[in-house]
Amino acid sequence: MNITLRINGKEQSIECQPGEMLTEVLRRAGHLEVKKGCDTGNCGACTVLLDDKPVLSCSYLAVRAEGREITTIQGLADEAKQFAAFLTAEGADQCGFCAPGFALTVLSMKKEFFHTPSEAEIRHYLAGNLCRCSGYEGQIRAIKKYLEADHA
Amino acid sequence: MEILKYARPQSMDEAFRLISEQRGTAIGGAAWLRTNTKTIALGVDLADLGLEYVREAGDHIEIGAMTTYRELETSQLLRARFGALFEATVSHVVGIQLRNIITVGGTVAGRYGFSDLNTTLCALGAQAVFYPDQTVDLAEFIEKGAGAPFLLEKVLLPVSAKGAYRQMRISENDFPIINTTAAWTGSGWRIAVGSRPAATRLCQKAMAILGEDPLPSDETIASAGRAAADELQFGSDIRASAEYRREILPVLVRRALMEVRG
Lengths: 152, 262
Ligand SMILES: Cc1cc2nc3c(=O)[nH]c(=O)nc-3n(C[C@H](O)[C@H](O)[C@H](O)COP(=O)(O)OP(=O)(O)OC[C@H]3O[C@@H](n4cnc5c(N)ncnc54)[C@H](O)[C@@H]3O)c2cc1C
Ligand code: FES
Ligand code: FES
Fold this sequence. Notes:
The complex is a heterodimer. By secondary structure, chain A is an alpha+beta fold. Chain A has 5 helices and 5 strands. Chain A has 2 domains: about 1-70, Beta-grasp domain (Ubiquitin-like (UB roll)), CATH 3.10.20.30; about 75-150, [2Fe-2S]-binding domain (DNA polymerase, domain 1, Orthogonal Bundle). Chain A is about 35% helix and about 15% strand. In chain A, helix 2 (about 75-90) packs across helix 3 (about 100-110) and helix 2 (about 75-90) crosses helix 5 (about 135-150). Chain B folds into 3 domains: about 1-45, 2-Layer Sandwich (Uridine Diphospho-n-acetylenolpyruvylglucosamine Reductase, domain 2); about 55-160, Uridine Diphospho-n-acetylenolpyruvylglucosamine Reductase, domain 3, CATH 3.30.465; about 160-260, CO dehydrogenase flavoprotein, C-terminal domain (Enolase-like, domain 1, 2-Layer Sandwich), CATH 3.30.390. Chain B has helices at about 10-20, 35, 70-75, 75-80, 85-90, 95-100, 105-110, 115-125, 140-145, 205-210, 220-230, 240-260, and strands at about 1-5, 25, 40-45, 55, 60-65, 125-130, 135, 150-160, 160-170, 175-185, 190-195, 200. Chain B starts with a strand and ends with a helix. The mean pLDDT of chain B is about 95. Chains A and B meet through strand 4 of A and strand 1, strand 3 and helix 6 of B. Flavin-adenine dinucleotide sits at the interface of chains B and A.
């Protein structure tokens, strides 16, 4: 079947199978910034925003995304760059594979919270983003500083 | 997951017909289906049926089958009625990106052994409403299932109940080793235990020990916890042995009961 997806503000017509998940279809459409980690719904690497809400694209039916606004990390490149500066400053990135998913979840948290989230709130919000390299401490420091700077 | 034929019904009648007459497979969040099923002959997507809601209806709260876990977790209405119970119940399930997808309907219909949510729904005395016109006790459905293909429309919660949830996990994103919810219904106590690792059951003997006293003593609460562990069957799996589950449960039941009693 043929579906039309709106990805980062642009409409794209894509051939897909009815049972296909969004990760596959987005990657086939050229969006390789959407990472495929566990492909079982556990790691958060495949996170995209759907109408501004973070979802696991590996566990979301592609046909259902028709008519909705899909945002990948490319669609928020400027914000992602600002956040990346904080990650780099804290030495938080290693292989970087988890970074697109992490960044999208952080950007979504920034929109959702009207106050600077506490460390417990940050950890809770990001519980679905796994990183196999870093040990999280650097990332938590970076996220705190990024969000504090934003709410300052 | 392969879906040979995909249908997106626009009415409950049509969805029910596809499921009951053509043996279609209901698609909730699809997050579990995709991990489990290789080929679905006819997928019946429930996305367009208006089943995403948490709303008050008389002396009940209605939760539509397509309501996501994240909606339960952030619902002001559920918070006003049940405090942090729903947040406590679902917030350990992986991350918010998955909780923005997975549904109440897929959870109840699946009757999963590991379920956090089904334990709370059973303890609150929820009812499951099947389209077109069948309402059954949700705990009974979890135990016995349905004899024929079905379309779950919504879950009803009595507003008078209040409850507390306790669980134990090896790590944050894993399935629970054991979980329990204790609830005061306004006229009696209910205790449900799940992840034994088999599916949720009510603890009738423990509930009888507590009786109709809204303020049971610490001793009564402790003996209800022990009775719950004695009356249920537990199994062993990669996460924990049956003995371990049996040892842990009375502590969790006691803590949940004490939280509700105050
Ligand atoms: C990676 C992962 C980790 C998880 N971890 C946990 C955990 O720690 N604790 C926990 O409690 N749960 C956990 N779950 C399960 C989750 O909470 C849901 O119960 C599960 O995903 C089913 O919901 P769904 O919306 O994805 O249903 P689906 O996958 O769409 O459907 C599941 C089943 O229900 C049927 N169905 C769906 N909706 C209806 C309906 N309205 N009427 C009739 N039949 C219907 C489907 O045909 C299918 O058989 C996990 C799931 C995943 C994918
Ligand atoms: S790839 Fe989707 S959660 Fe891991
Ligand atoms: S930096 Fe390698 S997975 Fe996170």
